[in-house]
Amino acid sequence: MKYVLFDVDxxxxxxxxxxxxVWRTWAQRYGLDPDEVHQVALRTRPMETFAxxxxxxxxxxxxxxxxxxxxxxxxxxxxxxxxxxxELLSALRPGAWALVTSNYEHRVRGRFARTGLPVxxxxxxxxxxxxxxPSPVPYLRAAARLGAAPEDCLVIEDAPSGVRAGLDAGxxxxxxxxxxxxxxxxxxxxxxRAAVRDILAFASGxxxxxxxxxxxxxxxxxxxxxxxxxxxx
Length: 233
Hints:
9 helices; disordered C terminus; 10 strands; two-stranded antiparallel ribbon
């Protein structure tokens, strides 16, 4: 049996603009440069971000302010699911997929409710583990809760930290929603939509997760099979 483990923000939910706005508002509250803060936040977890950009402030106070802004965004922010997300999640067998996120469960459920996406039985959030991505712990925790061996799991990610987490967990990792492949991914798709058919094929056991094909230089979703010269969809 095969299993699929999804990252959330940037993979299933388009929340890039929301995250930028939240960090911009947070930075302005503390008199910091919004662009600089956002660049640090893209690469680190919140507590690490605070230590870098506001070392003289109480990190718990900084975290409380960030949580307040993020919860407001769940209630009033404008965002959407990526094309193909609803079709993909609805087609997967119950008990064979999970969400693995650095966010918190109540925010994920709020966003999924607003975008009409189904929530699986297994959801591993920031509160469920002591070590977040790029540690493999979150993905290993999800696999354990599903009763899955790591080698039977496919990770769908958009960010370097998540890709590293999946690889270190011993899982197959495919990248989506980026113009350039993240280092280490076994396959890269320019969009989630382009990956839907292959993800469902992997889940059904009819497609290997091995890197049989590599991304071409054309449109998202084009591929150059090993040993061949022409791109195929």
